[in-house]
Amino acid sequence: MRRTVVFLVLAAAAVASLRAQPPEVEAVLDRARDYVAAYERDFVGVVAEETYRQEAKGGTREGAGGFPVEVRGQRRDLKSDVLLVRAPAGDRWQQFRDVFDVDGTPVRDRAERLAKLFLQPSPSAQQQVEAIVTESARYNIGGINRNVNLPTLALAALEPDNRPWFTFTGSRKKDSPAGPTWELEYREQRMGTLIRTAGDQAMPSRGRFLVEGGTGRVLSSELVAESPLLRAQIDVTYAAEPAVGLLVPREMREKYVTKSGNTIEGRATYSNYRRYKVTTEEKVK
Q1: Boundaries of every domain in the chain
Q2: Which tens digits make up the pLDDT trace of 208-242?
Q3: pTM of the predicted structure, to 2 decimals
Q4: 194 CB-near residues (< 8 Å, 6+ apart)
C-alpha cells in the first residue's frame, strides 16, 4: 500500500506556545523570522536547475494470500526546473518541480502540463495548489508517494504565521567574518501538524537551522517528521548566488524509512539560478 505524505500550510490563527528564551536567542529568532518573510518574497521568480537522483531499497509489502513479498530496488535520475509560484486568487506560495528529463529521456508533455497549470488555472485556489503539488511529485519512485521533497520546506517553521506553533532553543556555535552563527533547534507543538499522511495522521516535525546571528540568514536546515509507520528526514545546505543576490539551496539530501523496512534516499543539487519572466505579445490587425 502506497502512503502519501502531504504538506499542509494551516491558516488558522496561531496561539503562542514559545518557551521563554534568553534575550539573545529571541533576537536571533526574530532576525531569522524577518529574513524568511523577506526571502519568500525575493525568492519568488527564481528558477534553478535541479539534478536529482532517487533510490528505493528493500522492504516488503503484502502480496497475494497475505504473504510478504520483497520490494525490488529502484533508481531514477531527474532533471527539473524548480521554481516558487503563487496559486491564482490565493495567498499561498508553492514550490513547483517542472521535470524535463527522466533517466535521460525528455518529458514529452511538458509544455501542455505547464499551460494547464499556469495558463488554464483551476477556479479554486486550493485546487490549483493541489494540482501543482501532484505534478511536482509525479515522477517520484518508491513505496511512499510523497510531495515534501522540496528544498525550502523547513523554512515554514520560521514563517511568522507558523513560528508560534514551534518551540525553539538556541546555542552559539562559532564566530565568522559575518559574525557569530547560531544553531536553532525547533520542535512542533500542535495536533494539526504541517506534515500529515494521506490518512490525515499527524507527523510532528523537528530539526535545526544554522543561522547567521547578525542577519538571520539560514545557512542550512534539517527537518525530521515521524509517524508510527514512517520517518522522513530532509537536509539542505545554502550558499551565496550572485546571479540572484540571495543565499540559495545548493544540495538537498533526504531519507524515508517505513516500519516495514522500505527505504528511499535522494540527493539533489541546484545550479543555473536565474529569474524567470512572463512576457506577452499583442498584435493589432
Answers
A1: 3-275
A2: 999 999 999 999 999 999 988 889 999 999 999 99
A3: 0.81
A4: 7, 8, 9, 10, 156, 157, 162, 188, 205
CB-based burial label for 282 (10 Å; 0-12, 13-18, 19+): exposed
What is the arithmetic mean of pLDDT over 158-167? 88
Query: How far out from the chain centre does Cα 235 lie?
Result: 10
Please give the mean pLDDT across all residues of the chain: 81
Q: Are 164 and 30 in contact (CB under 8 A)?
A: no
Give the type of residue at 111. A
> In this structure, which amino acid lies at residue 100?
F
Q: Dihedral of the CA atoms 256, 259, 262, 267 (nearest 10)? A: 10
Place of cell 535541479: 50
